[in-house]
Amino acid sequence: MKVLAIGNQKGGVGKTTTAVHLAHWFAMQTGARVLIVDLDSQGHVAESLGLRSGDGLFRWLVRGDALDRCVVPGRLHLDVVTNDHTAELVKAHAQGSDFRAYLISMALGQAEGDYDLVVLDMPPSTDVLHVSALVASDALIVPAVMDHLALTGVMSIINTAAQLGRYPNVTPPALIGVLPTMFERSTSETMENVKRLQEAVGDFRLLLPPVPRDTHVREASAYGKTIWEYWPTSPAAVGYEQGKLSRNSAGRTGGYLHAAEIARTALGF
Ligand SMILES: Nc1ncnc2c1ncn2[C@@H]1O[C@H](COP(=O)(O)OP(=O)(O)OP(=O)(O)O)[C@@H](O)[C@H]1O
Ligand SMILES: [Mg+2]
């Protein structure tokens, strides 16, 4: 079982959209049994998949209910741990625990054998669940909007992840990459920010092919569907027609298809 965290302390950068689309792609395309855990009390994972929000996370992490009683079926091969306002209670519980950094990894022990991939949709914060999610993860993708504020959020989570080695028995998650989301490549400001970020991250391969800004994403989400279901040939799904760099299996560059294919290789599926 592999655990993939999708995080950035900055809000509204496409974390939930990325988590939902990658989780759904793995479940559909690889046959992997996937669990997506909503760590954000906004409950957007359930909403994006057309499900009712619920207190799955609270029952699982605080009440200690068995995981299989806390998940709801999202799609074929895709289960969801929902989250709602009770996330505040989860945070308070975690805060008081001696094992707070290990809270999620300990609870995920129950998922071993039932799931091949766990995707953690992280909240826009740096609280106890943020650290606990990183501790539990094997790999990390950092979605980011390429504006002038992108650098701070991105470097912050990358540095936090890198420092986790100081916890006993913790291997920091491998950074699969920074994923530019809602990308508008025609603006010179965007390209300038991409350059800055590339320099800061240090390795150009860590800047993943971007996901274009695409109104189909919002529409799909409003209908409780992923773009794989709503408009599978949309730019956000399959990317740009021409790209200088690598291409995805649709012969294009970027989009959630490209991100998913790169994640698949990185995770060894
Ligand atoms: N590629 C895209 N094109 C257009 N809109 C997008 C795209 N990706 C995401 N969005 C929209 O941007 C908004 C924010 O996305 P999302 O909820 O995934 O961000 P987030 O980082 O999870 O936010 P939060 O920090 O609040 O949890 C949503 O309305 C979503 O539908
Ligand atoms: Mg979110």
How do the strands and helices of this protein lay out in sequence?
Elements: E1 2-6, H1 15-29, E2 34-38, H2 44-48, H3 56-61, H4 67-70, E3 71-75, E4 78-81, H5 87-95, H6 103-108, E5 117-121, H7 128-136, E6 139-145, H8 150-162, E7 174-181, H9 188-201, H10 215-222, H11 227-230, H12 235-238, H13 255-267
Parallel strand pairs: 1-5, 1-6, 2-4, 2-5, 6-7
Antiparallel strand pairs: 3-4
The structure holds adenosine-5'-triphosphate (ATP) and magnesium ion.
Magnesium ion (MG) binds next to helix 1.
**Strand residue content:** 5-15%
Number of strands: 7
In N-to-C order, the SSE pattern is EHEHHHEEHHEHEHEHHHHH
> Over the alpha carbons, how many angstroms does the gyration radius reach?
17 Å
Provide the list of bound ligands, each named once.
adenosine-5'-triphosphate, magnesium ion
CATH class: Alpha Beta
Structural class: alpha/beta
Give the spatial strand order of the biggest sheet. Answer: 3-4-2-5-1-6-7
Mean pLDDT metric: 93
Estimate nothing, just give the exact number of structural domains. 1
| CATH topology type | Rossmann fold
How is the biggest beta sheet arranged? 7 strands, mixed
